[in-house]
Design brief:
By secondary structure, the chain is α/β, with parallel strands linked by helices. It has seven helices and seven strands; from the N terminus they run H-H-H-E-E-H-E-E-H-E-H-E-H-E. A seven-stranded mixed sheet has the order 3-2-1-4-5-7-6, sandwiched between helices. Bound molecules: S-adenosylmethionine. S-adenosylmethionine binds next to helix 2 and helix 5.
């Protein structure tokens, strides 16, 4: 528990950042053609992997403003401002602040937890803590779906923002005592930012095809479907 609160303390910079950009997050990150492109790919994957599951026991971890909340009945985040917006958009859903009521979510109570655009911000230690947290909340055979940046396509930056990438082999090792990787898909294979804006949406089918092919390892990021051991 002590380690957990230590990690929470180091998350304060991330939390402040997301609090400060919350009001413009949806418009700036997902309101443009690039954002819409990846949003469409991520939704397609979630719809496929969560089909037939009861939303009541699905949690969106690092849910932000609730962009992907339609797949779950609850969400959790470290940013109060992001959560406020998620709650306004989805009054019937339950949102939890990680270091407050988030700890009240019972262990073994979730059948699936998904997390998008979160792990790329976490240090290795924070990620390990997050895996422990998610593992404890999931029921036997619970499903953990998350994205990670691919080390092959990412240019190294400074600071915490989108700075963590893993290969499938590395992630497999990090999860090894707790989760088995059942499957993974690529997201964003084509250099979509180089395609004229008005044409981008016509490349979605091709990108999805490539991201599901033997070339998926070369996508910008991966979406992983893992099962609790
Ligand atoms: C890039 S946003 C993604 C939001 C949402 N998942 C989406 O895809 O639109 C990252 C979110 O993760 C939250 N976050 C960052 N680190 C976190 C952590 N360790 N635990 C839970 N949430 C975290 C941030 O506050 C922010 O709302």
């Amino acid at each position: 528990m002590q380690v957990f609160f230590y990690i929470l303390a180091s998350m304060s910079e991330v939390k402040e950042y997301y609090n400060s950009i919350a009001n413009n997050y949806d418009k700036n990150r997902f309101g443009n053609s690039y954002g819409k492109f990846i949003d469409a790919e991520e939704r397609k994957i979630l719809a496929k992997w969560l089909i037939g599951m009861n939303k009541e026991t699905i949690l969106d971890y690092g849910c932000g403003t609730g962009r992907l909340s339609e797949f779950a009945n609850s969400g959790m985040d470290i940013s109060e401002k992001m959560l406020q917006l998620a709650q306004q958009k989805n009054p019937a859903k339950k949102y939890f602040l990680l270091d407050k009521n988030g700890l009240l979510i019972e262990n073994n109570s979730m059948t699936a937890i998904y997390s998008f655009h979160v792990i790329m911000h976490l240090s290795k230690n924070e990620f390990k803590e997050t895996i422990n947290f998610i593992y404890n909340k999931l029921d036997t055979n619970g499903v953990f779906i998350f994205d990670i940046l691919s080390p092959f396509r990412k240019s190294k930056k400074d600071g915490w923002h989108a700075n963590t990438s893993y290969s499938i082999e590395e992630i497999s090792k990090l999860l090894e005592n707790k989760f088995d990787i059942i499957s993974y898909k690529g997201i964003l294979f084509l250099p979509i930012h180089r395609i004229p804006i008005s044409l981008r949406r016509y490349f979605l089918w091709l990108d999805i095809l490539l991201c599901n092919s033997f070339l998926k390892k070369h996508a910008s990021y991966y979406c992983i479907y893992a099962k609790k051991k």
